[in-house]
Structures are given as C-alpha cells and as structure tokens.
Design a protein that fits this description.
This protein is mainly alpha-helical. It has ten helices and no strands. The chain has helices at 3-10, 12-21, 26-66, 70-75, 89-99, 105-111, 114-119, 123-128, 151-169, 180-189. The longest helix has 41 residues, at 26-66. It is elongated. The two termini are 13 Å apart.
Length: 193
C-alpha cells in the first residue's frame, strides 16, 4: 500500500506520531504501525487471559465464603455491596442481571467487566467483602515498611492493567509507552515485516 493511501484511510492525526518516531521515513512508519498492531494483539490476548483468571479466582473465593450466588446476593438489600459506600457496585450488578434472559451465576460473572473485578479491591468493596480477598494471591510478597502489598496496591496495579486494556481496545498506540526502548526495539525488529 502506498503511504498516501495508508495515511488517508488511517488518518493523518493517527499516523503522524509514527512518522515522527521514524524521522519522517514513511515506509518505516507503516512498518512501525504494523508492529504496534502485533504488539497490541499479543498484549490483548495476555490481558484477556489474566482477566479470566482474576475473575475466576475472585469468584471462587467468594463462592467458598458467601455461597454459590454471592454476586447476585451482594447487590440485594442487606448484601455485602448494598452499603452506601460501595457506590455504583450494586447498580452495576443489578444492570447485569437485567441483561440476562436466563439467570445463572456463571453468566452473571461473565457479564462483569474488568473494572468491576478491579473494584473488588477498592477500599469499601474490599472491606464489605470481609478483607480476605488477598488470599487469592498465595505467592504475594510480604509487605515491608516501605512497600505495602495490600488491597490498595492490588487496586493500583489493576488500574494500570485496565488502562492498558482500554488503550488496546480503542486501538491507541502502545509502542510509545516504553519511550526510547521501544524505538531501539523497533530498529532491531523492523526487518521482520
């Protein structure tokens, strides 16, 4: 494909960052764009698998603690997330329930997005859930005076993953997030396409 056609269909605004990163070399900019797509595909696959593992671990933890319908029960009056401080959490669950034509716990679990699972580590949801959710990380490092591996830490790390996931889902470039290291990587790997 000629660069002008590529730029026209992808947009000047989107492609200009790649052109700038390659010192104005249009051929290399198209190659860098394709490499970014490849990187995005790989990262999205990893994050998708991580999301499934995370939600299954959280679900199993609460099934063991609170019963087979813990998620539906959590949004019910008197449920663990029905307190005011849990914000929109009960409404998110209730909206997901309304979308289901036939209820099953596994369908409700699958309906929840990454942000929902991240928020199980937010202050109020974590406390409402009994403060035991860190148990899903049996190999979690021990906290030190300078670094606490607590629910706040997990929430913050999951926020970073969620932000990256959203960048990938919206087809934003991720190859620039690593600064000059990504340019060096591009120069080494540019021959693969």
């Amino acid at each position: 494909m000629r660069f002008r056609d590529f730029e026209r269909v992808m947009s000047v605004a989107r492609i200009s960052r790649y052109v700038n990163a390659t010192g104005g070399d249009t051929r290399k900019s198209m190659t860098l764009y394709r490499l970014n797509l490849r990187l995005s595909q790989e990262l999205f696959t990893l994050i998708s698998c991580f999301e499934i593992v995370l939600r299954n671990a959280i679900d199993q933890h609460y099934v063991t603690m609170k019963g087979a319908d813990w998620l539906r029960d959590a949004a019910s009056p008197g449920g663990m997330y029905s307190i005011r401080n849990c914000g929109k959490t009960p409404y998110i669950i209730a909206n997901a329930l309304r979308k289901l034509t036939v209820y099953s716990h596994s369908k409700l679990v699958a309906e929840m997005d990454f942000g929902f699972w991240r928020y199980t580590f937010a202050q109020h949801q974590f406390y409402a859930g009994g403060q035991s959710l860190l148990g899903i990380f049996p190999a979690k490092p021990k906290s030190t005076l300078s670094l606490r591996y607590d629910h706040k830490y997990v929430f913050s790390e999951l926020e970073k993953i969620n932000t990256l996931r959203n960048r990938l889902a919206h087809h934003e470039p991720v190859c620039f997030a690593f600064g000059s290291a990504s340019r060096a990587l591009y120069i080494q790997d540019s021959n693969i396409i």
